[in-house]
């Protein structure tokens, strides 16, 4: 009988039933296998679309890089031009300031030069005899030397023209006369002293220029007679 108890007292085993706790074998082996763990796909169309998108992004980045590089070069060129213009402006301003300073100095000194001329003329004409006159003369000479020293400190130097060839860039001829001691176009006398200012003419010297020796005693050589 199927319901009898075995001699060992165990329940009879039904071969047609699953043991207790055994898993069912209905669809365990029929379930679908999972896809790749990285989520990739083997679809050629999707792969082509992904590659096309990456290429478009690369092309866009390259275009942006090229545009930024061109903009950088343009800005760099603009900066270099501005720097050069500013440097030229600075140099031009410095030259203009130097020229203005020199012009003011020349104008001021030119106004003082007649005073120096008067000092020099008085120095040449004075011939003190008494002790009082000598004291006055020494005081006068001290003032004159002080004035000359100031001119030297400013870069003013007198011209030395007597015996020099006439140079219209340095001299102004106010007289011409015959001279047996000097050849033609040589300065034989200084009428008013000229001055330089740091190598630049501050005032031209007024001079007398030689015309050279004239005819000897006003006589001219007679033509030789031909023997006949």
What characteristics describe this protein?
228 residues, alpha+beta, Nucleotide Exchange Factor Grpe, Chain A, domain 2, three-stranded antiparallel beta sheet, three-stranded mixed beta sheet, 6 strands, 46% helix, 13% strand, disordered N terminus
Quick one: how many beta strands? 6
Major sheet: arrangement of strands: 1-4-5
Cα-atom radius of gyration = 59 Å
Find the CATH superfamily of the domain at 156-214: Head domain of nucleotide exchange factor GrpE
Q: Which architecture of the domain at 156-214 does the CATH hierarchy give at level 2? A: Roll
What order do the helices and strands follow? HHEEEEEE
What can you see in these coordinates?
By secondary structure, this protein is α+β, with helices and mostly antiparallel strands. The chain has a domain at 156-214: Nucleotide Exchange Factor Grpe, Chain A, domain 2 (Roll). The protein contains two helices and six strands. A hairpin with a 2-residue loop joins strand 4 (195-197) and strand 5. Helix 1 runs antiparallel to helix 2 (131-153). The longest helix has 82 residues, at 44-125. The termini are far apart. Residues 1-40 and 217-228 have low confidence and may be disordered.
Spell out the blueprint of helices and strands.
Elements lengths: L43 H82 L5 H23 L2 E3 L12 E7 L9 E6 L2 E3 L2 E4 L1 E6 L18
Compact description:
The chain has 228 residues and is α+β, with helices and mostly antiparallel strands. It is built from two helices and six strands.
């Amino acid at each position: 009988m199927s319901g009898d108890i075995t001699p060992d007292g165990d329940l009879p085993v039904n071969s047609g039933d699953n043991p207790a706790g055994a898993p069912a074998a209905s669809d365990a082996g029929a379930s679908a296998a999972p896809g790749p763990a990285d989520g990739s796909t083997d679809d050629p169309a999707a792969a082509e679309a992904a590659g096309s998108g990456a290429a478009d992004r690369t092309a866009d980045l390259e275009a942006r890089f090229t545009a930024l590089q061109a903009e950088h070069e343009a800005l760099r060129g603009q900066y270099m031009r501005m720097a050069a213009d500013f440097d030229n402006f600075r140099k031009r301003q410095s030259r203009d300031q130097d020229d203005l300073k020199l012009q003011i100095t020349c104008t001021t000194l030119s106004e003082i030069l007649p005073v120096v001329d008067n000092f020099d003329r008085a120095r040449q004409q004075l011939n003190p005899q008494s002790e009082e006159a000598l004291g006055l003369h020494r005081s006068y000479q001290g003032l004159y030397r002080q004035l000359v020293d100031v001119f030297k400190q400013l870069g003013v130097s007198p011209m030395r023209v007597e015996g020099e060839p006439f140079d219209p860039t340095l001299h102004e001829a106010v007289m011409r006369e015959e001279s047996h001691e000097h050849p033609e176009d040589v300065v034989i006398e200084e009428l008013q002293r000229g001055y330089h200012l740091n190598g630049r003419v501050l005032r031209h010297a007024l001079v007398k220029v030689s015309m050279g020796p004239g005819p000897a005693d006003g006589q001219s050589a007679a033509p030789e007679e031909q023997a006949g």
